[in-house]
Specification:
It contains 15 helices and 21 strands. The strands form seven sheets. The chain has a five-stranded mixed β-sheet with strand order 8-9-10-1-11, with no helix packed on it. Strands 4-5-7-6 form a four-stranded antiparallel β-sheet, covered by helices on one side. Strand 4 and strand 5 form a beta hairpin.
């Protein structure tokens, strides 16, 4: 996943997807030249105004969903996300490959064939060997930062250290000819086509590999090449790759001639510049800065500005986490009482109101692609059910209530902070549960809640999707085999139920996404009844774009404006 501190993140993840997915207020090309619906034109310069630099701009080191936003302008991959509005945008489509992959009967072998006519920015051909090398170099310790799946999924990859130390490479990635690549997996993985959207599947010509300096000028396989990379991505300038062809790429539109990415900006400054739209800012967007409640209130009174707000939902859930090894949270009745006591109306208001957060009763995000099935194992209504909570506390042996400590971040930036914690505290008070708040500095907080040795009993957390499927959402949190005792652990409840583990394996064998989604939804309900977490809300994202921006596309995979589709007036 690509990173952005203003997008809620997985607690403690090495990096996070810059993806925001869900139902989106999106626009497509129409006629005329007035507003984002106007017919797109080729040419001009698109400016991107961001807080975070596009640092470590190396396909080996990026952690993206669907290939990311800016990265996917330079790095093509075997597959990619469909660049269309709404739910159809959650589909995987071919990119460098002719299709989304051919699996073996048990989904442990995946075969891909490359399209004809693929070229780098220098006109040289892209080969299957370049893709194999690109994946292998992501194992090099000095190029770490990408997703963890390769080491876990590929046969013989567990201890591989990359081609700089082991030039032999991985036997589990075969390239029988220049246009064929075959992957051998340790276990069935029906979601492999989704992983193949990651930038690690971008081709890297071995002769042009400069190691850690490759980020300064990675060799483009996409519609744009890097012409300037200042201060490790603080200022990135892209121009057209003359050898990219829409004949081999029907996803990226690549309308602008130049893309100017400016980072290190204050969020208020970004939104003010987009609002005012002076000079180059009229043709500007942001890929990492959301509008806040006060800004939305101001925009609501301006029809023109309100028409320049794109709305999307990332596959993400903010929740209360329990460590079931810590008393009193080892008692299911206590956890159920807390689930009934939570006042989600207060929590949603603390998150910015219903325009920025949707109350959650499911762990899976509220999008069909994840397998979302509406249910509430502890139906307490929007304001909670204190009476039911007190009843459960009595059954648990706490007739006079109890006192617990809720650990949270000292920062509200990721919505794990004092605002949400106080809203939870107020709701539980009505049920006789006294909540003491324990604020930790952001860096220390992430470390504390993802370490088995220091994990508190009760804390605020959240999880975002590496791709729009139930697997990467449920498995890291509830698969007992993913409990990490000497590193970052996300299975906070430390659940290790063989039947749950087996069900995860069974669903992973399914290569039909719709069929798998239904089963992920059923598993979500089954786990939900154990009150191992209490879902709070699914965030909503609203972002402003410049007045000269055309062809706004927001898919249910990313939930944000797709810069590969944007045109400027």
């Amino acid at each position: 996943m690509s990173r952005s501190p203003r997008i809620p993140r997985r607690i403690g993840a090495a990096a996070v997807t810059v993806a925001l997915a869900g139902g989106a207020a999106a626009c497509g090309p129409k006629s005329g030249d007035a507003g984002a619906d106007a017919a797109p034109h080729r040419g001009g310069t698109l400016t991107i105004l961001n807080q975070d630099p596009q640092d470590r701009f190396d396909p080996a080191r990026e952690y993206t969903s669907g290939g990311g936003n800016v990265p996917s302008l330079v790095f093509r991959t075997l597959t990619t996300r469909a660049r269309v509005n709404g739910a159809p945008g959650t589909k995987v489509v071919p990119d460098l490959a002719t299709d989304t992959g051919t699996p073996s009967k048990d989904a442990t072998v995946w075969t891909y064939h490359l399209k004809d006519g693929l070229k780098y920015e220098d006109g040289s051909p892209i080969t299957s060997g370049d893709i194999k090398y690109g994946i292998e170099r992501s194992f090099a310790p000095e190029l770490s930062g990408g997703p963890p799946y390769f080491r876990d999924w590929l046969v013989g990859a567990e201890n591989y250290q990359g081609p700089y130390k082991d030039s032999k490479g991985l036997d589990s990635i075969e390239t029988p000819d220049a246009r064929t690549i075959v992957f051998h997996l340790n276990k069935p993985e029906g979601d492999f086509p989704y992983l193949a959207t990651a930038t690690q599947f971008a081709p890297v010509p071995k002769a042009k590999d400069t190691g850690v300096k490759y980020a300064e000028h990675p060799i483009s396989s996409g519609p744009y090449e890097v012409v300037k990379n200042e201060n490790d991505g603080a200022h990135l300038v892209l121009k057209r790759n003359p050898y990219w062809s829409s004949k081999t790429d029907d996803q990226r539109k690549a309308y602008p001639d130049t893309i100017d990415v400016q980072s290190g900006l204050d969020p208020a400054v970004i939104n003010q510049r987009l609002s005012t739209g002076s000079g180059a800012d009229a043709a500007a967007v942001t890929t990492d800065t959301n509008l806040g409640p006060s800004e939305l209130a101001q925009i609501g009174n301006d029809k023109e500005l309100a028409g320049r707000v794109g709305t999307g939902h990332f596959g993400y859930t903010n929740y209360l986490a329990f460590n079931t090894k810590v008393k009193p949270f080892d008692n299911p009745k206590v956890r159920e009482a807390i689930a009934y006591a939570v006042n989600r109306t207060s929590v949603v208001n603390a998150a910015g109101g219903s325009s920025l957060a949707e109350a959650a009763t499911t762990f899976l995000p509220n999008q069909p692609t994840f397998g979302y099935t509406p249910y509430d194992p502890f139906p307490a209504g929007p304001n909670g059910d204190p009476a039911k909570a007190k009843e459960l506390l009595k059954e648990a042996g706490y007739p006079n209530g109890l006192t617990v400590t809720l650990t949270h971040s000292s920062s509200n930036a990721d919505q794990y902070g004092p605002d949400i914690a106080t809203a939870v505290q107020d709701g539980l008070k009505a049920a006789g549960i006294t909540v003491k708040l324990n604020a930790l500095q952001q860096s220390g907080y992430r470390q504390a809640v993802t370490s088995v040795s220091s994990e508190p009993g009760f804390f605020l957390s959240g999880w975002g999707a590496d791709w729009p499927s139930g697997g990467p959402f449920l498995a890291p949190i509830f698969d007992g085999r993913q409990i990490v005792t000497n590193g970052s652990n996300f299975n906070s409840a430390q659940l290790n139920d063989p039947s749950v583990n087996d069900e995860i394996d069974a669903i992973n064998k399914i290569t039909d996404h719709a069929t798998a989604a239904k089963q992920w939804g059923a598993l979500d309900q089954r786990i939900g009844r154990q009150a191992l977490v209490v879902p709070l809300f699914h965030p909503v994202y609203k972002r402003l774009y410049g007045k000269d921006i055309r062809n706004v596309v927001i898919s249910d995979w990313t939930g944000v404006l797709d810069v590969s589709q944007v045109a400027v007036k």
